[in-house]
Specification:
This protein is of the alpha/beta class. Helices cover 42% and strands 10% of the residues.
């Protein structure tokens, strides 16, 4: 796939740069967009476009949040983005969320994951997925340079991720100037040393502001100090396999904000222990979503 060259306005200049030494932020994934409105949910949330785009009347956010493009579901189901929104439609949705929901910290692009199961579904190579990921980011930034859309690096081996960085560089994008860079295809091996090696290698290239997609407690215990932020909704699967919390009347706590918030607290404690520094949920990131 040919990627057109485009001079991209760095995200840092578009929507603010946060300092590099702030505590690791953790976004609680949820299937329930109405959690954005709950006064009891004062933690940052990670909400999928696949859920939000069903809403005619959008919730008004009481807390900071980030937008998941739903790429893993799209590719695992269909092996293509053809069933999802076009880049033009996706940009229009992000703009609507920013304006009507408010407090949007950033949005993921329509990237292409590189897990072996996804490659088997698309029948493409890692290089193909990287080209498509870079091309989509360039297109989204061309359509809406003012929106907080982050670049994402994809790959499987450490070398793959470094080659993905080179792909961005070849098309005029200096990722070291981005306010945040997502690291994809790590969630299903987040407890391994391989992910730490990947993050370390990215740091050595100057990419020190990284978001780990789907990184939960085992991974954060190993390399939280290498991440600016992470997200996960592993709590929902965990809750589905356990009895409800005392006082909860539903059959399971798989969509229970009380359970999710308690799990979020456990994750923060893990980050705090791993980094030996105060763990908040991202005061500098909150400034991006003001």
């Amino acid at each position: 796939m040919t990627v057109s060259t485009l001079t991209v306005v760095p995200q840092a200049s578009a929507w603010g740069t946060a300092p590099c030494a702030e505590p690791t932020s953790f976004y609680l994934g949820t299937h329930m967009p109405h959690w954005l409105t709950l006064p009891t949910v004062r933690v940052p949330l990670f909400v999928s476009d696949r859920r939000l785009r069903r809403y005619r009347t959008l919730p008004h956010a009481n807390t900071m949040w980030a937008l998941d493009s739903g790429g893993f579901t799209e590719l695992s189901r269909y092996g293509t983005w053809d069933h999802g929104p076009t880049p033009t439609a996706y940009v229009a949705q992000i703009r609507r969320y920013r304006d009507q929901i408010g407090r949007l910290a950033w949005a993921a692009p329509q990237d292409w994951m590189c897990e072996p199961a996804i490659l088997a579904k698309t029948r493409l190579t890692i290089a193909d997925h990287q080209d498509r990921t870079v091309a989509n980011y360039l297109r989204l930034r061309e359509l809406a340079p003012e929106l907080p859309i982050i670049p994402v690096v994809q790959g499987w081996s450490t070398g793959d991720y470094l080659r993905c960085v080179d792909r961005y560089t070849a098309h005029g994008v200096d990722l070291t100037q981005s306010a945040l860079v997502g690291v994809g295809s790590v969630c299903r091996r987040q407890s391994t040393n391989q992910v730490k090696d990947i993050l370390t290698a990215l740091h050595r290239t100057g990419l020190t502001r990284l978001h780990g997609f789907g990184v939960k407690t085992l991974g954060l215990a190993r390399y939280a100090e290498l991440l600016t932020s992470a997200d996960s909704m592993a709590w929902s699967r965990e809750a589905r396999n356990r009895p409800p919390l005392p006082g909860c009347r539903h059959r399971s706590c798989a969509n229970c904000p009380r359970y999710g918030i308690q799990w979020h607290g456990t994750v923060l404690a893990t980050i705090d222990h791993a980094t030996a520094r105060p763990t908040l949920f991202g005061p500098s990131l909150a400034g991006w979503a003001a």
